[in-house]
Amino acid sequence: MKVVKNYLYNAGYQVFLLLVPLITTPYIARVIGPTGVGINAFTNSIIQYFVLFGSIGINMYGNREIAFYRDDPKKMTQSFWEIELLRFSAIILAELVFFAYLSWTSKYHEYLLMQSLLITAAAFDISWFFMGLEDFKTTIMRNMVVKVISIILIFTFVKTAQDLAVYILIISGSQLLGNLTLWPFLRKHLVKMNWRKLNLWPHLRPALVLFVPQIATQIYLVLNKTMLGQITGVTAAGFFDNSDKIIKMVLAVVTATGTVMLPRVAHTFAKGDNAQVQRYLYSSFDFVTAASVPMAMGLAAIAPKFAIWFFGAKFAATNTLIMLESPAILVIAWSNVLGMQYLMPTNRNRDFTVSVTVGAIVNLILNIPLITFFGAAGAAISTVISEASVTIYQLYVVRKELTLRHLFTDIWKYLIAGLAMFTVVYWLNITRPFNLVWLLIEIGAGVIIYGILIVILRAKILKQVQQLLHR
């Protein structure tokens, strides 16, 4: 029941995160325009490399280590401080490299400085500790309060295109503040320890092993915006950034299972219950398939008129980008289950690393010709193909211990229901005037059609739902 509770907490938070951009993004798009959105996306993509370098795989590694040792308070306390001090050291080095970069580049200095608060914020990010404990309530409630404060500040102080630096400062500053507010909660979980026994070095190598896949992941999450900014211009980066935001907002609700299940599976694996680990995986895979198919197809169906209504007429190009990138929701959901809920918690680090490295290489190779010839549309296509390559490789490496047919037993049912839903919603979208009322009608129609067909086809997800209701 704890897994369900944590998922509801996390999914609820992801819905909240979904609502925040629904409130702020249309306002920001209209106030600072495509160029401002593009500058923010481009400079943020650069800063993320330094954040990545300073994090050195700590979030995934720390989450797993705390999950392993949470039944031993002394060992857990020592592991926490060793891992956190290792991160502090890496962040200091990342800050030094950033200022060296800043002295070398001549563009967007002011915006890069505002964004650099995110590097400092990463040093104080201890959410991995609470996730390892499966204490999602603490991090979620804190994040929600900070987000609400940031929304108020945005509407209060960001009024014109000249306030772009203020907007960036609010976003990065709220991240730092949010991370700092978690520290007082440590007192409930940590015990006294002998500081002389601290030894950072045993954590460096395993953290670096997980750092490699994060580098690869970052390439195809951020490199698109960096390359668009360099090859096509920051405006194209702004178009892609907005379409990518919509995809990631929808995807976050599905991938909430990965955040919840990683520590649970790691703890189960540590106890040697491999059969239960597999049962978790099959259930999660079916759940994310049932949820991501209608989300991907529904988003593609409303895309033709959504961007102009949501972002404004200047962002009309985003319509096509959302349709092109929407299949990524399904393949990322699958790779999230296979990678974050199976390979990672069961110490299959090498396989996970190779999978995301494959995706990064595919993305890098495809980006150059596709962005050069098709601009932001090329970046969207490249994203889908690279994410699919990650999933295909992960399916390949787990083929001997998992029954692939079992994973995909009911996919045809979800696809039939999804296609029927897409057809109706797409027809409504292109034949009716688009406004908030019709958006809600389209979403409602899609949910009803998909739900009815899932019941008629007797998909496995219904059994999961029944089991949850009777607990």
TrEMBL record:
The keyword Plastid does not apply. The lineage of its organism: Bacteria, Bacillati, Bacillota, Bacilli, Lactobacillales. Pfam families: Polysacc_synt. This is Flippase. Its main location: membrane. Keywords: Membrane, Transmembrane, Transmembrane helix. It comes from Loigolactobacillus binensis. It comes from the Bacteria. InterPro entries: Polysacc_synth, PolySynth_Transporter. It is a multi-pass membrane protein. PANTHER family: LOCUS PUTATIVE PROTEIN 1-RELATED. It is found in: Membrane. The keyword NADP does not apply. The chain crosses the membrane at residues 7-29, 41-62, 83-105, 140-158, 164-186, 207-226, 287-311, 317-340, 352-374, 380-399, 411-430, 436-457.
